[in-house]
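User: Please work through this fold.
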Amino acid sequence: MNLRNNLWKCTVLLSLLATSLSAAAGALEDYRVIDRQIDKEPQTAIDAVDRFENRYARGSQMEKTMAAYLRLRISLIMENWAAAMRSTETLIALKPNPEQRLGLLKLAAQVGYQLEDWNKTIQYAQDWLAAVGQTKQKTPEAASLYELKAFAENNLGKSATAVATMQIAFGIEATKNRGDFILSCWQSMQKTAEELRFLPVMIRQWPESVYWSRWGWLLYEENRQGEALNVLSAAEKTRKLDARLVPLLIDLLYSKEAYHELLRVLRANPEALPQRSMAMLQASALIQTGRRTQALDVLNAFVRTSEAKHSDIALAAQTAYAEEKWSRLRELADRLVKIEDQNREYWLILGGIACFELKDYTAAHQVFSEVQSDKWKETRRLWLNQIQFLQPEIVHHGHHAQP
C-alpha cells in the first residue's frame, strides 16, 4: 500500500478545501508553517501539531479540517496508525466533497489494515466501492480495494468470502500476488477441483515451476495419472518441474512403459535418483528398447562401484550372456562364484560357457569340473564331452568327464 502517495492526493484535495472555507488568518499562517516543517523535520513538528490541535480543533470547520489534516500527516509519517485512523475518521465526519471523501475512505481502509482492524478495513473498502458506483468498480484502483478487503476477510477466517472478493480483483487486474492468494485459499479450504481449474490460468501468465509442479501433483493425487504425466512431462521439458517431482515423473513413465521418454528424462536429470536406481532403470529401459549392448555398458559401469548388490552383478552377467559378451561374462561369473552360495553352480556353468566360447578349453574344463550337484549333472556332462571332443589332450592330463 502506498499510503504516502494516497496522502499526497488527500493533500491536494484538502488544499482545495482550504481555499473555499474561512479561517482565522493566524490559523492559516500557522498551518502553512507547520506543513512546511513536517516536510523538513517531521520529528520536531510533533509539538507544533499538538499546539495547533489544542488551539483550533474546536474552531471553524476549516480550522478543524486543518488540525485533523496536520495530525493525520504527522501520524502517517510516524506510523502512528491509531492516531491516523482517528484523524481520517474526523476528516470524513467533516463532510468533505465527494472526491475528497473517496480519498479519505480509501485511506481509512488502508490504515485499518495497518492497524489489523479487519472490520474497519472491510467497512471502508465497501464504502469506497459503493461511493464510486458500478462504472468505476472495474478500475485498477477498485481492484486494489477489493484486494485489501479480501485480505481482511481472510484474516477474519472468512476464506470463502475472501476468495470470491479476490477473484473480482484478479478479474479486473490479474497479478501474481492475487493469484497466489486465490490458490492459497483453495488449498486451505481443500477445494482441489477449484485449484485445478485455476492453476492453468496462473500458468498461462506466470509459467513458473511452483504452478506446474502443483498442477501435476494434484492430478496425480486425484488418480488422474495420464493427465499428471502430460503436465509433469511438459514442465520437465521446459525446465519448470520441481526437482522433488522428477522421481514421480520417472515412476509414471516407467509404469506407462514410455521407455524412450524415460531414458531422456533420466539423462537430463542424473541426480534425480540414487545411483543404483538410476542405473537399474536405465538398463531396464535400454533392454526394453532393444539396446542391450548399451544396457550392458550401464550395468558394467555400475557394478564396478561400491553400491552394487549381488543382484545387480547378476543382471549384468545375464545381460552379458544374452549379448554374447564372453570376456565380460567370464569376469562377472567368476565374481559371483566367490560371493554367491545358493546359486554358485549356476554361475560356474555360465563362467564355463564363457571360457568355452573364448576357446579357453582348459579353463572351461576346470570350471565345469567344479560343478557337483545333481541339478547341473547333465549340463556338466554335455559341456565336458564337447571339450573332450575338441581338446582330448585335456582329459589325458587327468580331467575326466562324467559318463
Remarks:
- Confidence is low (pLDDT under 50) at residues 398-403.
- The two ends are 97 Å apart (CA to CA).
- Residues 88 and 265 are 60 Å apart (CA to CA).
- Residues 3-20 form the longest helix (18 residues).
